[in-house]
Structure formats: structure tokens, C-alpha cells
Amino acid sequence: PPRSTLFPYTTLFRSRKLQTADDVIPALERVMSAMNSIDGSKGEFSDEVLTPFLRRVCPEMAELKQFHIQELTLEDQPAAWLLVLPSHRGPMIYNTTYDPSLQKWSPGAVSFSMAIRDAIEGGFSSFNLLRGGEEYKKRMGAVDAKLFRIVMKRL
Predict the structure, then answer these.
(1) What is the pLDDT of residues 42-101, one digit of tens each?
(2) How far, in whole angstroms, is CA 58 from its chain's centroid?
(3) What's the whole-number average pLDDT of the chain?
(4) How far apart are CA 119 and CA 53, in angstroms?
(5) CA-based angle 6:10:18, to the nearest 5?
(6) pTM of the complete model
(7) Which of 24, 92, 96, 130 is exposed most, by the fewest CB atoms within 10 A?
(8) What is the rounded CA–CA span in Å between residue 133 and residue 70?
(9) At residue 45, what are phi and psi to the nearest 5 degrees?
(10) What strands lie across the sheet with 13-18, from one edge to the other?
(11) What is the C-alpha separation between 14 and 66, in angstroms, rounded?
(12) Helix axes 21-36, 51-63, angle to 10 degrees
């Protein structure tokens, strides 16, 4: 089917990949603002733990091409973000959030849909939502994968 059938709001939404420290740093502030505006445990965890961690590591990881932010805009207004760890098999989504004031447009679902489409078009074999039992992962059809634990000791 034509892209307009699959994504009827593509004229309103745009997605862009932010890959440099200069782009990632201000985008992280938008991400943190959105996360902190969410009531409950995600907002509290974000404010106390996640924000300092992301500010410290993400700009450097972006410069090393080990991290980027996929930012979705709705009529040029930032609406949703995917924090992505790229891999040879496909994107690994570390965290995600959206602007709650735009919830009626489902920016989170649109952001995931566009990112999955991009992964398919890029020839990747997987789209990894990483660990966690969040409800949105189940709704998207995620399947748990067996994880292995490796313990290394210095000799």
C-alpha cells in the first residue's frame, strides 16, 4: 500500500535522527522535561536517577556513534522521543517518552511506527525494545528473549 495509507498523519509528523552532541544535548533537555512532567514512578525515577546519567553519557556516546535520539515532531513541535542504541541487527530502544499535552495524537505510537518502518527499510533484522515488562511493549507484540549472564573474573 502507499505510505499515506500506512501512515495517514505523515504530513503532520516528521521524524529526525539526532546524532551529534550538539543536537543530542538540547534534545535531552526536551526528553527530560517530558519525562519529568509524567506523574508517578517514571517521572520520579527520571528526575532522580535517569537525568544525571543521560546528561553524563549520551553526548559522548553520540559522538562515538553509539547513541542517537529519534525525535518526532507534530507540525514542527517536538512530540516524542526514542533513545536509541544502534546495533548491527537493528535499533535497540533504551527509553522513550512523549509530550503528554499531545497525547490525543498518539505521538508515542506514531514514533514507534515510523522507527520500525525505518528499520525495515534499512534492512535490519530486529527492532529491540530491550528488557522490561512495560505494557506498551506487549501491545506492540514484543517477545521475551532468553538472556545470558556472563561473569568475568580478573586472574
Answers:
(1) 556 666 778 888 889 999 999 999 999 999 999 889 999 999 999 999 999 998 899 999
(2) 13
(3) 84
(4) 27
(5) 115
(6) 0.80
(7) 130
(8) 22
(9) -60, -40
(10) 13-18, 68-74, 77-85, 92-98
(11) 23
(12) 160
